[in-house]
Amino acid sequence: MQEADVTSDPRRAQLLLGLTFIMSMVFATWQTLLNNFVVEVAQFDGAQIGLLQSLREVPGFLAFTAVFVLLVIREQALALVAMALLCVGVALTGFFPSAIGLYATTVLMSIGFHYYETVNQSLTLQWLPKEKTAEFMGRALSVKAAGALLAYAAIWLLMTGLGWDYRAMYLVSGLAGLAMLAYLITRFPRFDNPHPQHKRLILRRRYWLYYGLTFLSGARRQIFMVFAGFMMVEKFGYNVAAITGLFLINYLFNLLFAPAIGRFVQRAGERRALTVEYVGLALVFTSYAFVENAAFAGALYVIDHLLFALAIAIKSYLQKIADPKDLAATASVSFTINHIAAVVIPALLGLLWLTAPAAVFLIGTGFALTSLLLCRNIPDHPDADNPVRWAPIRLRARSEQNPT
């Protein structure tokens, strides 16, 4: 079957969007309730919460193992199994309000989440034609926002309005996800991939720019997720309602503007889109370091989140330069590279935060400026024979066969 025939089937995109909606709805429920649940019900202290978050990131760091799972299961099937694990992990969360129980359900949920995200990236780059990938990823961000907004609405209605407890909310969210997943399984057939995928770890010299951008993206993401939100509470006194309001604004922006962002990346190209992102992020992180106004800090948080949507250009860049047979293995490796920062950055910068909070955000500025320098090396029209504008070593192009 030729690639044109494979990627022309709209049901592939529909399946990916359906899975994205389920993932977002179920994970948003888990994430939104977690801090209150572990304090109010499980009575965690700071050390236990820190350990739980570290355990949650371990499956992301080990995402490279997905390539070995693909030796015994197809990618589409792995995506469905991983989604089921995510749903089951969330459904069980409320039944085990102890340290060991929460660690176990969190790891189960996280394995499903990270394996799904790894395979989802691979299938997106395989199943979508290159001229439509960035636009599709913008649509996927919008669908993801819709799933999260549904979760927020359900939490407000069922817990605030009807008085449901955490156990019931987690259970219903997980079971709803499983029901939607069962529908997708019966609704869509098994699709063949256009290119058989390598079933081994692959690191190629000619992908070095993609690896670098991926690592720096993970580092900046940790500063945003861990320290930007913490600053809102510690420095500006944002309460739960205010933080939830910021999340709602972020997801509403994604719902409304993410498709347009995808189209912008498609038209402008990866180098220009990433240049806009990194210049904007450098300004945002620098402003974080010196902001003294609570409303302005909230505006920065929303702008920060919106700029991160442009990071879809990193994935579309990989699609254009990679051997199609490398996509599954490279997606697995890239998730591990992205999560190296998740393991190291929060702990190291957390110590720095105690004495110099502004310095944490200025380090984020440094990450953004380094990313800016790297992205300027993306060609106008990147492809397998032209992955970078300038390289310090001679890179073999499409004919490269052996991983390095």
What is the H-and-E element order? HHHHHHHHHHHHHHH
Estimate what percentage of residues fall within beta strands. Answer: under 5%
- Our measurement of the CA-to-CA distance between the termini, rounded to an integer number of angstroms, reads 30 Å
Number of H/I helices: 15
Poorly predicted sequence stretches spanning 5 or more consecutive residues: 1-6, 396-404
The whole-number mean of residue pLDDT values reads: 85
What level of helicity do the residues show? over 70%
Instruction: Tell me the total number of β-strands.
Output: 0
Radius of gyration using CA atoms only: 21 Å
Report the biggest beta sheet as strand number plus sense, adding barrel if it closes: none
Helix/strand-derived class? mainly alpha
Q: Quick one: overall form?
A: globular
In a few lines, what is going on in this structure?
By secondary structure, the chain is mainly α. The protein is 75% helix and 0% strand.
Describe this protein's structure:
This protein is mainly α. Helix content is 75%, strand content 0%. The protein contains 15 helices and no strands. Helix 2 (10-40) runs parallel beside helix 5 and helix 9 runs antiparallel to helix 12 (294-308). The model is unreliable at 1-6 and 396-404 (pLDDT under 50).
